[in-house]
Amino acid sequence: MKKRILALMVSMLLFTSMVALADDSVFNLRMQSYYPQSMIGCAETFAKLAKTMSNGRLNITVFPDGTLTSPDNILKAVKAGMIDIGQGSGSYYSELEIGNTEIGLPMAWKNVSEARLLFEGLGFEKLVAQNYENQGVHYLGWAPVATYHILTKQPVNSLDDLRKMKIRAIGGAAKMLNKVGVATVNIKSSEMYLALSTGQVDGVLFGGALDYQAMKLSEVAGYYSATPIVDPIIDSFIVNPKLWNKLPEDMKTILETAALRAGLEYYDDILKEEYLLRSKAFKGVTSFPKEDITTLRKAAVVVWDEEAKRSTTVAEGIGLLKQLSSLVE
Cβ atoms within 10 A of the Cβ of 93, count? Predict the structure, then answer.
């Protein structure tokens, strides 16, 4: 990763040194994140880095969730040129085969180092990039953005405790929980506070400590599970291909560098807050015992195998994921 950042930075500096020979046009771009206003820090960091490194030639305005389009339509909107750049979750795009695997299937990786090994060391990023290209957008890169933990109204010390509850969860994580006997319900993130307050659900699986504090969910559910379902969740940065092809090479390099740095810098901040907040924001922090983690992992692998049936591309990605597992276990 450090070598990649260094290479990108060197390339960017070389292009910058030739600015007198390059097109000095200013590009005013619109970017939408799929996060609400309180959680668009990664996108804002990306925009700030791009502006600074380009000496103001890349001027990116960031819009929060739903301002220009809905989260599940960001890919379509970028493809159509309605927005120039999107930060989103692959699992939201029904047309993207590899989206669920890209963001992090349950129990897929335990830390950002493992995720980096999969994406960059084992070649998973190339599969993801090609899948996005096939859908008509240019893939700028991946961004680690959040931890993924269960928050509940009562303490959870085991799967038996969790089986007595109804948990808001979606996608592969919900499938895994169902397989171990935990009831789940799919509700919008904007409805989680009310659902917890009224007893519609007993817990949620949405993000990490900082997310739960920012959304005030820790006010109505005070118990946090330190066992990650996946860590980190992975987002993507995508750009309109016509715009991309028009950009000078130095601006392309800057955008790629900004995407990479924004994700890593944002996640570093997230991880710091994750541990600082655990003792402050919650009534209690618990963990699953080893035998329950083993049970979850076995159920997760079944979910992986089900996901692999979507296409040969996804199957190839799951193969890389299993290769990662064999390397880090």
Answer: 26
Q: Which two tokens stand for residue 19?
A: 């600015």
By C-alpha distance, which of 10, 167, 99 is closest to 307? 99
Handedness of CA 48, 64, 125, 246 (dihedral sign): negative
CATH architecture designation of domain 149-229+278-328: 3-Layer(aba) Sandwich (3.40)
286-317 exposure pattern, b = at least 16 Cβ within 10 A, e = fewer: bebeeebeebbeebbbebbeebbebeebbebb
Q: Would you say residue 258 has pLDDT above 90?
A: yes
Where do runs of H (alpha helix) occur along the chain? Answer: 2-17, 41-53, 74-80, 99-103, 112-116, 124-134, 159-162, 171-179, 192-198, 209-214, 241-246, 249-281, 290-308, 312-328
Residue 1 has pLDDT above 70, yes or no: no
pLDDT tens-digit map of 125-183: 999 999 999 999 999 999 999 999 999 999 999 999 999 999 999 889 999 999 999 99
Residues 301 and 319 sit within 8 Å (Cβ to Cβ): no
How far is residue 276 CA from its own chain's centroid? 21
* Topology (CATH level 3) of domain 2-146+234-276: D-Maltodextrin-Binding Protein; domain 2 (3.40.190)
pTM as predicted = 0.86
Q: For residue 171, give both structure tokens.
A: 């996608």
How far, CA to CA in Å, does 179 sit from each of 40, 173, 217, 227?
A: 33, 10, 26, 18
What does the DSSP assignment read for 186-233?
---GGGHHHHHHHTS-SEEEEE-HHHHHHTTGGGT--EEE-S-SEEEE
CA nearest 168: which of 201, 214, 120?
A: 201
Distance CA 290, CA 177 (A): 16
What residue segments make up the domains of the chain, in order of their start?
2-146+234-276, 149-229+278-328
